[in-house]
């Protein structure tokens, strides 16, 4: 399951926090994944409602790339005044192990605020494969080592990690095909 988490830099000084109310201007919400994917949709839905409650606009900015690292780095480098927030996925938590040189400190530069949604992962196959269960999928994959391709929303994404966990626990070889995000590109 993917857990969408909101992260924000809320490292205001005590003097700054007492001197002004928050927010004092529009809030910039960075989504480090492709527009149109599940995380983007949840982020826009939550931002719209939160904007109404706060009385300030929340502007969603998609900054995809490098498994969320590009957008996350932009938030980590922003002024720590709470007006730039990050809306990201649970894969954020494994970034320090997936990438050797992050341009930010996952724990020191960002503070978790709240989970926003749980987004399930679903295992599907083409109907033409005539596979009707996980057991049948595993049997077919074992019968043809390396012959199974599996897709994800990108390397290091929750869909990638869940598929790898499934593949390793089931004991079969497969080829990971990472897409540039979770958005489905429907045929025309």
Secondary structure layout plus pairing:
Layout: E1 2-8, H1 14-19, E2 27-31, H2 38-54, E3 58-62, H3 69-77, E4 84-89, H4 95-98, E5 111-119, H5 134-143, E6 148-152, H6 158-170, E7 174-178
Parallel strand pairs: 2-3, 2-4, 6-7
Antiparallel strand pairs: 1-4, 1-5
Beta percentage is 15-25%
Number of helical runs?
6
CATH H level, superfamily name of the largest domain: Bordetella uptake gene, domain 1
Envelope shape: elongated
H-E string: EHEHEHEHEHEHE
Overall number of domains:
2
Q: Given this structure, which CATH class of the largest domain is correct?
A: Alpha Beta
* CATH architecture annotation of the largest domain: 3-Layer(aba) Sandwich
By DSSP, the count of extended strands is 7
Class from secondary-structure proportions: alpha/beta
Largest sheet: 5 strands, mixed
CATH topology of the largest domain: D-Maltodextrin-Binding Protein, domain 2
